[in-house]
Amino acid sequence: MNFTNKDGVLIVKDIIEAIQKNKDYLSEIDGAIGDGDHGINMNKGFTMALEELNENDNMSSGFQVISKTLMSKIGGSMGPLYGNFFRGFYTVSRNEEVIDGVIIGEMLDKAYSNITSISPAKVNDKTLVDVLDPAIHAYHEVYQSTQKTKESLEAMVNASKTGLESTKQMIAKLGRASRLGERSIGHQDAGATSAQIILETFATSAIKLLK
């Protein structure tokens, strides 16, 4: 099962809409142990990206627009992190007319490696890595055994939810929240939250397109 890169622009638009809808929720999560502006900054960047999209964009060029916008216009750590994340999606898929389960796996791997190349974050540091790592591993585990894209995406979503929940019991090791030490326990991480939203939206929208 697969979908065309052209039709895949729906995924880009759905991810932007999901961030916009969760703007207040993301800032509320961030407010508990951070600056409280994660939702504001994410919404600003993704909304600006939406304004840059045009009718000729496909999935790859849409992700490139998000990447460039976040890298150039959003400060803090999330601009570069997510800018590089979506650049990974673009880099792998840009020359592909058809997107299948193998390409999706490569997109996820490149996006994740782009994150780890610029961030020291490891699993259990209470960051977006605690969502990305188990989610992407789950995708590959199911795909390697079944070759079924839909089931692999569903496994990714389930693992992303488990990963997000796990951040509540972690002590923050990086960023502003790390200053709180053990007081950060009991709160889920804002970056992990937006990562989970992005992965789930990607999966849900891709499943709709699979033929």
TrEMBL record:
Gene Ontology molecular function terms on file: transferase activity
Residues in DhaL domain copies: 6-204
Keyword set, alphabetical order: Kinase, Transferase
One of the Pfam families matching this protein, by short name: Dak2
SMART domains recorded: Dak2
The organism's place on the tree of life at top rank: Bacteria
The UniProt record lists the keyword Acyltransferase: no
InterPro entries: DhaK_L_YcgS, DhaL_dom, DhaL_dom_sf, Dihydroxyacetone_Kinase
EC number of this enzyme: 2.7.1.-
NCBIfam families on file: dha_L_ycgS
Record's protein name: Dihydroxyacetone kinase-like protein
Biological source species: Breznakia pachnodae
Lineage, uppermost ranks: Bacteria, Bacillati, Bacillota, Erysipelotrichia, Erysipelotrichales
